[in-house]
Amino acid sequence: MFGTGPFAVPTFEALIQSPHEVAALFTRPIADSGKRRKTAENPTRDVAESAGLSVFDPMNVNDPDSVEQLLKFEADLFVVCDYGQILSRECLAASKLGGINLHGSLLPKYRGAAPINWAIFNGDPVTGITIIHMTSKLDGGPCLIKAETEIGPQETAEQIEPRLAELGVKPVLEAIDVLGNWDGNSPIGQIQDPALATRAPRLKKSDGQINWSRSATELVNQIRAFQPWPGTFTNWHNENLKQPLRLIIHRATALPRPSESRGKPPGSVLVSDGNTLIIQTGAGQLSIDTVQPAGKRMMPIGDFLRGRAPAIGDLFQ
User: Which of 251, 256, 215, 213 is nearest to 232 (CA)?
Assistant: First the structure.
């Protein structure tokens, strides 16, 4: 098993409980092993240790020493999920059947490190998982099994990730059976169409910055997509503030009321009445429901407005 984050845990636990023999776990090294926060930092390591499995955490799994270690297991198959490193051709060749990967999207859409986040960001109504027979190309191998699920209109990335992790367990076990009956030479799986491939790059802090020229619906999707990290944030500008105040927006509602904008630019405060804060966007308006000022706790918008209310015409950027 190759895994690090929580997305891999249900599959790893199912493999341990299955008739298959799990030889070891390969995982990412922990940055500060002397002060390890177990579950939050590396839950797959905790599962392996509880099951009495050997754990290996090379800085680079493709180094010759790591490949030599993998060869010693004489493994039939590598199962990869939420690992954090790309296995080279030489590394994959260290097992009889290569490797399979549980990926959190319906490939070839959203190849990369953050498929769940970008699917929500783009407003997709459906997502899913794909089991691929791995090649050295990132998420580019033939698809063995897919399973899909709807994305709820209010569902966040933090909520849907564990659903997808559980959804992938049965397909992983089915894919292992498929490969167990494979002759090793004939074509297997469905080849991905590269023309349909889209990217899902690793999230950056700057991805959370709100661009108020986007539509209200797009901004709601962004807020849902970037929970818990990097969050979705904006800066409140007011002449009475010594410096702009950063606000993380945890929940908001899109309001299709362009007639009330009165020609104000995107990011302008339209309503601030003690219980309601409405901001003009590039299309429609955004009603802020839950917010977290810099250095403060998350709070309902009414609590925030009772402390320091933006004025009509103030600008969020």
Answer: 251
